Amino acid sequence: MATIPKIWFLRHGQTQWNLERRLQGRLDSPLTDLGLAQAAQQAAIVGPVLKAMPDIPCLVSPQGRAVHTAEIALSGRTFETDPRLAEVATGEWEGQLRADLPTGGLNDLFLYTSAPGGEGFDALEARVRGVLEDLQGETVVVSHGLLGKVLRGLVRGLARDEMDALSNKQGCVYVLENGRETCLEA
């Protein structure tokens, strides 16, 4: 993959379904009080970047939980939604409790991308590659956990199993530059 510009990646704040350990995929649930606080933490972290670079593009998933997080974390900054930043579609498993699924020992990325009627890993990876290839310069991205694992993994040159092992924190900002990742926390 060609050189990728510096990215500040923000995962949306905790949602009601994150708390319940329910698969959201393309469905949505509201941010919890903790999720709202996490978005405020991200605002404190990314605020200096936005102030120093007033023209930096901000790309956001069109899903409600990411948009709500962006409204808070970007402190009212104008942003563009990009449907390619939506979370992986989990087909027949959307809305289901994780405990009710036949996990077979699968970790998150493998589980979510193997859902019947879902998007699958290859399609998710192709979407994320498209986003990365279209970046024209340093960018702030607000999206989702599993999409973020793939985005962060591609930037770092990781294999799929290594992507799955990445952290999936909320309330922080992952800075991706020159194939490396730094996690900034308040």
Question: How much helical structure, as a percent, in the residues?
Answer: 25-40%
Unreliable spans are: none
CATH class type: Alpha Beta
Q: Per the principal axes of the C-alpha atoms, what is the gross shape?
A: globular
SSE succession? EHHEHEHHEHHEE
Q: Major sheet, described briefly?
A: 6 strands, mixed
- By CATH, the architecture is named 3-Layer(aba) Sandwich
- The share of residues in extended strands comes to 5-15%
Output the number of helix runs.
7
- CATH topology, by name, is Rossmann fold
Distance between the termini: 32 Å
Tally the structural domains.
Answer: 1
Mean pLDDT: 96
C-alpha-based Rg, rounded: 15 Å
CATH homologous superfamily assignment: Phosphoglycerate mutase-like
Strand order in the largest sheet: 3-2-4-1-5-6
Estimated structural class: alpha/beta
Total strands: the figure is: 6
What does this protein structure show overall?
With about 190 residues, this protein is an alpha/beta fold. The chain has one domain (about 5-175): Rossmann fold. About 40% of the residues lie in helices and about 15% in strands. The chain is built from 7 helices and 6 strands. It has helices spanning about 15-20, 35-50, 65-75, 110, 120-135, 145-155, 160-165, and strands spanning about 5-10, 60, 80, 140-145, 170-175, 180-185. It has a 6-stranded mixed β-sheet. Helix 3 (about 65-75) links the parallel strand 2 and strand 3 (about 80). The longest helix has 20 residues, at about 35-50. The protein is globular and about 50 Å long. The termini are far apart. The model has no long low-confidence stretch (mean pLDDT about 95).
